[in-house]
Amino acid sequence: METIGLVLVVMGLGVLGMAVVALLRLRRELAATQGQALDLAERMNALPPELAGGLGTGDRHVITVELLNLFELAHKESALTRPLTALTPRLLRDVVHKKIIGRVRESLSAAGVEADVRVHRAR
């Protein structure tokens, strides 16, 4: 009985090992394919894949803004944001995005600009 249990454990570990190897191979293939897609999009002067689905490649022009100092902006708002940065960075990022979107909408509206201000998540 112990021999059968040992054989089953060894077989299970073997199957698990093969699954891990297959997963790692698929991740490498995915990374290579993503790199090729980005290179091709760059050569074609196309929108990034995360924006192309919603915005298309038509006649509309889109201005994008990438926030490079997101956490510094949050730290200026409140002293409590420093500990939150370590504990809940995604939540803090979402809160800062909402505040900035509100400010941008107000500024554009005050200038008479009709705009659709949205957040698009990128890699």
Summarize the structure.
The protein is mostly helical and 123 residues long.
Core attributes:
single chain; 123 residues; mainly alpha; 5 helices; 0% strand; flat
How are the elements arranged and paired?
Elements: H1 2-43, H2 49-55, H3 70-77, H4 81-87, H5 89-110
Helix pairs in contact: 3-5
Structural class computed from helices and strand pairing: mainly alpha
Give the radius of gyration: 24 Å
Number of helices: 5
**Total beta-strand segments:** 0
Estimate percent helicity.
55-70%
Q: What's the overall geometry? A: flat
Describe what this molecule looks like in 3D:
The chain is mostly helical and 123 residues long. It is 70% helix and 0% strand. The chain has 5 helices and no strands. The protein has helices at residues 2-43, 49-55, 70-77, 81-87, 89-110. Helix 3 (70-77) crosses helix 5. The N and C termini lie far apart (52 Å).
